[in-house]
Amino acid sequence: MNVLVVDVGGTHVKILATGETTPRKIISGPTLTAKDMVTAIKKLAADWKYDVIAMGYPGPVVHNRPVHDPHNLGKGWVGFRFAREFGKPIKIINDAAMQAVGSYEKGAMLFLGLGTGLGSAMIVDGRIEPMELAHLPYRRKTYEDYVGLRGLKKFGKKKWREYVADVVERLEAALEPDEVVIGGGNSKLLKKLPPHSRMVDNKNAFLGGFRLWQDPQVSAANYDSAIEAEPAERANGSAAAKKSAKRKGASEWQQAQSH
Predict the structure, then answer these.
(1) I want to staple 168 with a disulfide (CB 3.0 to 4.6 A). Which of 29, 179, 191, 194 is the partner?
(2) DSSP 8-state secondary structure symbol assigned to residue 194
(3) 141-142 and 137-138 as β-strands: parallel, antiparallel, unpaired?
(4) Is residue 20 a contact partner of residue 48, using CB atoms and an 8 Å limit?
(5) What is the pLDDT of residues 23-81, one digit of tens each?
(6) How many distinct structural domains can be found in the chain?
(7) pLDDT at residue number 57
């Protein structure tokens, strides 16, 4: 089973398929709608073979469906029939949670993604809890206003780094993880990491997308109920695809790790 992973961000939408080594991307931004994205991704991946899709979405996701339009993208994401428009079974998860899945090792892990906004997720003993910490009050605005791209541009790198360190310290004290994992495109701008933290590559988002379909433990524990239950999917045999993913998950996950 080949998986197409779609990582939706506020600046770019990146894709990678099983067996491929070089991601492709399109520019996103505040005018990108869900329909525009699907049309562009289908063209961008036209020469790739894939059976199912894993998508990281920059916002809350409930029962495999976005519940709010993204803060940094266009409209039309809530209620959009992704499986029907792609013509493939799809699993949708918060984008920070997808990168967290690809970064997780053991114990309790807090993932923070420093990008256009602030992505966040917790994994405790293999169980994922996507979080929406970005828009909680912080100082005069929100966490995202200080450690997201707006904060970086407004305050400059030096002050931004100070805010990142403060935010990590506050969230670590409140949530008590074993470690904090820091990712996102702006993580490379940090001169040093906060205590008890490690940095991960953005490619871990693709790794997490592969795991949603190919790792039998991840699928069984967290995502079996997440397949979008649309008539078009049922007609295309999504149940069979899910069973196949479980049977073949171990070997295919090993292949995915090599990418």
Answers:
(1) 194
(2) P
(3) antiparallel
(4) yes
(5) 999 999 999 999 999 999 999 999 999 999 999 998 889 989 999 998 889 999 999 99
(6) 2
(7) 94
- 143 and 136 in contact (C-beta within 8 Å)? yes
Cα 66 from chain centre: 13
HEC per residue, 82-99:
HHHHHCCCEEEEEHHHHH
pLDDT for 238: 39
150 and 172 together in one domain: yes
The two beta strands, 3-8 and 12-17, are antiparallel
- 58 with 33, same domain: the answer is yes
Q: CB neighbours of 121 closer than 8 A, spacing ≥ 6?
A: 94, 96, 97, 99, 100, 110, 111, 128, 129, 130, 131
Q: Cα separation of 181 and 193, whole Å?
A: 10
pLDDT band with cut points at 50, 70 and 90 for residue 10: confident
Predicted TM-score (pTM) of this structure: 0.78
Residue 194 burial class via C-beta count within 10 angstroms: exposed 0-12, middle 13-18, buried 19 and up? middle
Q: Are residues 185 and 167 in the same domain?
A: yes
- Distance of alpha carbon 88 from alpha carbon 167, whole angstroms: 39
